[in-house]
């Protein structure tokens, strides 16, 4: 399963729509394979869904993420695991073990800044 995680300095970047880099890897048979990072090339917000679909992503691990993005990804058949923070590789290990949680109460929220600007 090709998995994408918004990435910054080894951590899950918490503002999905503004991520500049995704960690990509395959999660197969309980293993993390082919880990790399890939630039969004300036794409942001809703355009990220098309980018991830084009890359063939099958799962997304993220922190806060908007309702619209969740719907776009899910409608494309992509599994979404919102509400995750911390180390990217640890989140991927949890996904590989089948213990990663999806916290949909985090949808529409991130803790990276004050949302009065939105």
Question: Which percent bin holds the helix content?
Answer: 10-25%
**Helices and strands, in N-to-C order?**
EEEEHEHEH
Question: CATH superfamily, called what?
Answer: Dinitrogenase iron-molybdenum cofactor biosynthesis domain
CATH domain fold name = Nucleotidyltransferase, domain 5
Determine the mean pLDDT. 90
Q: Architecture in CATH? A: 2-Layer Sandwich
Rg over CA atoms: 13 Å
Task: Give the biggest sheet.
Answer: 6 strands, mixed
Shape: globular
Unreliable spans: 113-118
Quickly give the structural class: alpha/beta
Number of strands: 6
What's the structural domain tally?
A: 1
Highest-level CATH class: Alpha Beta
Distance N to C terminus: 34 Å
Report strand %.
25-35%
Task: Determine the number of helices (DSSP H or I, runs of at least 4 residues).
Answer: 3
Oligomer: single chain
Question: Would you kindly provide a written description of the structure presented here, covering whatever features stand out?
Answer:
There is one protein chain. The protein has 118 residues and is of the alpha/beta class. The protein has a single domain, classed as Nucleotidyltransferase, domain 5 (2-Layer Sandwich), CATH 3.30.420.130. It has three helices and six strands. Strands 1, 2, 3, 4, 5 and 6 form a six-stranded mixed beta sheet that branches. 31% of the residues are buried.
